Amino acid sequence: MLVAGRHVSWEDPCLSCLSDISESVMHKFGKFCAAVLVALSACGAQAYDVQQFADTALSFKLGVEHNYPPYQFRDDHNQLAGFEIDLMDEIAQEMGVTFTYEEGVFDHIYARTQGGDLDGLLGGNCITADRKRAFLLSDTYLHSGQCVAVSEYYGAQAFQDVDSMKNRSICVESETMGHRYTRTLHFSNVKIFDTIPDIIDNFNEGECVLMIADCMIFDFYIKTGYIKNAEVINDPIISTQIVMLVNPKSPQLLDIVNEGLAKVKANGRYEEIYRKWFYNRTVGRPLHPEFNVEDD
Question: What is the CATH number of domain 60-296?
Answer without folding.
Answer: 3.40.190.10
